[in-house]
Design brief:
About 70% of the residues lie in helices and about 0% in strands. With about 240 residues, the protein is mostly helical. Strands 1-2 form a two-stranded parallel sheet. Helix 7 (about 130-145) packs parallel to helix 9 (about 180-190). The chain is globular.
């Protein structure tokens, strides 16, 4: 992981060492780098299962037919997962680790903390309607941007995702209890810009479909666009 984030983590580690900060706390335990890699592997498998659109973007396509859920119980479960992992990392005694392994630890810790920060501080699922609109639009775009599978298979995934969009947008109205008017306005603009993606861009996947499959795609698309349009109308009241 050679990036600006890696460099920053290394600087933070060196700063911490120069100030005499202990690498392990009183409650630390032996935690070899191999265990960190196992924890990270398990976390990212879980994360991409929870967020299948992000997985599609990252090139993992087991969840191409699904969208993420954002109900309060689901979000609470995710927060507990992040908190449990962070607590486990905080207890690690890294005094014998190499600098590279400690940098990996800090990068992984920051990534897990981001999930907790988004729910506890940003509260997008409660404040930002754009979260739900993006899940719908990115759910389609992530299937189109690369020819990673035959078009027919990607079209079937798109159909499945579009069929779940009305339920997701209905859930959004329940969860959005702290809507920020500016974010509602931006989300409505995204809704207004969605039809070309669904009608024109998605159309490239239709050629290899049978007549019944094409009818399924048309019906799913109409239902998704209708749900997005209704959501946009609902957002108008949230802008005030």
């Amino acid at each position: 992981m050679k990036s600006a984030a890696t460099a920053l983590a290394a600087i933070l580690l060196m700063t911490s060492d120069s100030m005499g900060a202990p690498a392990g706390s009183a409650g630390s335990r032996r935690f070899p780098p191999a265990e960190l890699r196992d924890v990270a592997h398990e976390y990212y498998r879980w994360y991409y299962h929870e967020f299948p659109v992000a997985a599609s973007d990252a090139g993992m396509h087991e969840g191409d037919s699904r969208l993420a859920a954002f109900s309060a119980p689901v979000r609470e479960k995710r927060s507990r997962k992040a908190a449990d992992i962070l607590q486990r990392l905080d207890q690690a005694d890294t005094t014998s680790w190499s600098v590279d392994d400690r940098v990996d630890l800090e990068l992984f810790r920051a990534d897990v903390a981001r999930l907790d920060f988004e729910e506890r501080v940003l509260r997008r699922a409660r404040r930002d309607p754009g979260l739900y609109v993006e899940e719908c639009t990115n759910g389609i775009f992530s299937l189109l941007k690369k020819d990673y599978q035959p078009r027919r298979q990607r079209a079937r995934s798109a159909i499945a995702r579009m069929r779940t969009m009305p339920a997701l947008l209905s859930e959004a109205r329940t969860e959005l209890v702290e809507v920020v008017p500016l974010l509602a306005s931006l989300a409505r603009q995204s809704v207004d810009g969605a039809p070309p993606l669904f009608n024109d861009s998605l159309g490239i996947l239709e050629d290899d479909l049978s007549a019944p499959e094409r009818a399924d795609l048309v019906n799913a698309r109409e239902g998704a666009l209708r749900a997005l349009k209704d959501f946009g109308v609902w957002l108008k009241s949230a802008e005030k």
